[in-house]
Amino acid sequence: MNEAQSRYFEDVCEGMELAPLTKTVTTTQMFLYSAITRNPHRIHYDEKFAHSEGLPTVLVQGPLQGAQLSAYVSDWMGAGGFLKKFTYSNRGMALAGQSLTLRGKVVKKYELEGRPAVDLEVWEENATGDLLVPATATVFLPSRSTN
């Protein structure tokens, strides 16, 4: 969806799936994210250190995965939407250079605080389909009837 476009409440139905999005997090991205968030843990940017800790390679930061999922929701809802609530939980290891797919579905449509609202389940999985980061979101969407 183009950033200038909006997704409307009337165009969404329960059970609707969000278009999947595959991302690959690079070690450069992870290094910069560690610097910005002041996360000095070397398992996120030093491959030799990660190996010494028994890991196959450096691990993608949990908050970076959460940020990618919240951006996925924001892109889906479009410019007219409002992200009311977002929660996520890291359940598995995401590795640098690994294909990660973001997926989601609409679980509920209703009115909240007098506004059209949608609850979403979104998640990140690896190339073998293992669930790494489940998340939920509540978004307000514009309605065609109030525009």
From TrEMBL:
Residues 21-114 form the MaoC-like domain. GO terms for molecular function: (3R)-hydroxyacyl-[acyl-carrier-protein] dehydratase activity. InterPro entries: HotDog_dom_sf, MaoC-like_dom, Mitochondrial_HTD2. It comes from the Bacteria. It holds the Pfam family MaoC_dehydratas. This is MaoC-like domain-containing protein. The lineage of its organism: Bacteria, Pseudomonadati, Pseudomonadota, Betaproteobacteria, Rhodocyclales.
